[in-house]
Amino acid sequence: MDLMKRENFSSGAPLEEKIGYSRTVKIGNFVFVGGTTTTNSKGIVEGEGDAYLQTKIILEKIEKALEKAGARLSEVYRVRIYVTDISRSKEYMRAYSEFFKKIKPVTILVEVKAFVRPAHLVEIEADAIIGSYLVRK
């Protein structure tokens, strides 16, 4: 049985080492980007109060995390979006469509009670397969 190589990628967030998690894990040609928020490296929540901006910042961070692991946004096949206020879905999805309208990964938008930091309005995960491509019919 052949084993697939696993690589962990850090975003540099202090809690990654303290708690024990990675921003991104690559196993073979599969890339998994964990829950991503707008907290920057200084611990500041960017885009506070702005659902559209937080979503856009997160998706930019996810794109960089994918690239660090050798993947592209166009290879994303699944996105999970967690929000604290589903009534603002148009704002979240406006930013989402700027990144994924043509890629069309499977997606879920779910309302949750809260995040660890109350200033977070949205948290997003993404999965990709390196080497995958969209077939148009």
TrEMBL record:
Transmembrane segments: none
CDD domains: YjgF_YER057c_UK114_like_6
Pfam annotation, one family: Ribonuc_L-PSP
InterPro entries: RutC-like_sf, YjgF/YER057c/UK114
PANTHER family listed in its UniProt record: BLR7761 PROTEIN (PTHR43857), YJGH FAMILY PROTEIN (PTHR43857:SF1)
Protein name (record): Uncharacterized protein
Organism of provenance: marine sediment metagenome
